[in-house]
Design brief:
The chain folds into four domains: 2-34; 50-215, Penicillin-binding protein 2a (Domain 2) (Alpha-Beta Complex); 221-560, DD-peptidase/beta-lactamase superfamily (Beta-lactamase), CATH 3.40.710; 580-634, Trypsin Inhibitor V, Chain A. 34% of the residues lie in helices and 24% in strands. It is built from 20 helices and 26 strands. The strands form eight sheets. Strands 2, 3, 4, 5, 8, 16 and 17 form a seven-stranded mixed β-sheet that branches. Strands 10-9-21-20-19 form a five-stranded antiparallel β-sheet, sandwiched between helices. It has a three-stranded antiparallel β-sheet with strand order 1-6-7. A hairpin with a 6-residue loop joins strand 16 (435-439) and strand 17. It is elongated.
Amino acid sequence: MFFRNKHIRIRYVLLIVGILLLLIIGKVFYIQVFEYNKLSDLAEDLWSRNLPITADRGLILDRNGKVLAENITTTSLVLIPNQISNKEQVAKDLAEILNTDYENMLAHVSKKTSIERVHPEGRGLDYETANKIDELGYDGVYLLKESKRNYPYNTLLAHTLGFVGIDNQGLSGLELMYDEYLTGSDGAIKYFSDSKGGRLKLNEIYNPPTSGMNLTLTIDLDIQLAVEKELDNAVTKYNPEHALILVMDPKTGEVLAMASRPTFDANDYLSASVEVRNRNLPIWMTYEPGSTFKIITLASSLEENTVNLFKDTFYDGGSTKVDGATIHCWKGGGHGAQTFLQVVENSCNPGFVALGLKLGKEKLFSYIDKFGFGEKTDIDLNGEAKGIMFDVNKIGNVELATTAFGQGISVTPIQQVTAVSAAINGGILYQPYVVKSISDPETNDAIIYNEPVEKRRVISEETSKMVRYALESVVANGTGRNAYIENYRVGGKTGTAQKVQNGSYMVGNYILSFMGFMPADDPDYVVYVAVDYPKGVTQYGGTVSAPIAKNVLNNIIDIKDIPKTKEVMPKEYQWLDVKYKVLPNVVGLSANDAKKALQDFKVEYSGEGDTVIYQSPSAEFYTEVGSTIKLLLGN
């Protein structure tokens, strides 16, 4: 009995031992097969270290692929404190090379950490400094390549592009708004060390960084450069408080150029004040628009059929009264009897007051809302303002009258350009935008592609056509004549807005503006220029801003090689204007007859014979009176 019980107990013990053995074998199998990679990585982490390699940010390109923001390679200092044996000597030598405090450097060298980045004095080192450190040959002192943002055109498009911090993080502008796309994934050089941090002689592992996505903008670099040049010229000539230029495609809402003064160098943004860096004036600045806003009153009146520009007339005696308030015309004594087309050409305030009163506040302000005023345009940039509008339920005839000619309300430049684009493009309000696409840096395939966004129809195509005609007449025969370009169809409207300070209008302090577009019959470009308080000049939009807009349009003509047209609205030249006449065609005439036909021009002959076989410039286009016409003679 005793032995039988003993054998049973032995069997139980063997069974239990067998089960335990199977469990151990199963656990070892599980660890070796299923947990191997995890445990191997954990073990490797105990004796491996990573030297970081920063990734390149994505490029920012203009619409034609030209680089606006790129990356350059710099060198940064990284320390492995456990590998540094003579910490005092290393700290002393590094402090001398980096021109920094010894105690500060000793703190870096002695820090209880696996890897210490020397920041900020060890970041972005130039070649000479990096070479001095490399020549020391100290263990634990490493120089790593680091990516640094670079803006090759310095101040160009600075407010729109924005800038990045020392760790390549977006801080403003597009760099901030699209930081998640532009930021890449950092890489590393993995090495192995012993328990004391000493470097082991094992193969290093290189994990390459991954660059961020590229941004392609709607901006045209060549037009942007022209805009920047004109702003610099305006600052030199007029010393304004502010100045800005916006160029847009009215048929899509694509911003082709935008800039303002004062500006800053995005490569050295800390040297500029916070106010200058953070204020993108074309989308942030709000002010009374003045007479450029009359385009909205004109379009609304035409859409509602409350005026016939050719048949309806208005007499301007220099002022008009509205509920006891006197509203003056800019021209002393007024313009006298006019058609309403001439009211538009002359930018006559009393005439536009009449248009506004005839429309009524509900109608006018409904169109103001439709054109997008009083709300953000939703352009893909940060810092946009929405302006200030009257509450339609709290305004009387005086507020209605002043609104009709652009006084008493507050708008932004981007709102004005977007609204006027709708008035002249056939009647569609588009959402403006700056980013055209986001693409993979390796394949260049677009992962996001922005298309034009139609918000709503504001006016009819027929009304828009009439607005274009009236504004072309403003440039040919009215206050916008300084923007007239011979052989090209240009439309536009001047603006002279008195500035407000502490609730009162300032004396002799104006924002002078001009809204222009080209070609006037089918616009591809809208240009808005605003100059805040220019010095040493008569303050009218037609005097200051219209010529600047003309220069921008002339640059666009050259950049895009836009051909001349014979179907232009003739300009009524004044005595101070440079005169132009249509050049007659003298090919086939005798030299004597050609000279008679060209009596308003200088003639230069070449060749032999008595018959003109070629002339330059081409015939039947406007040519400056007194300029030289070259004739080639033959038989």
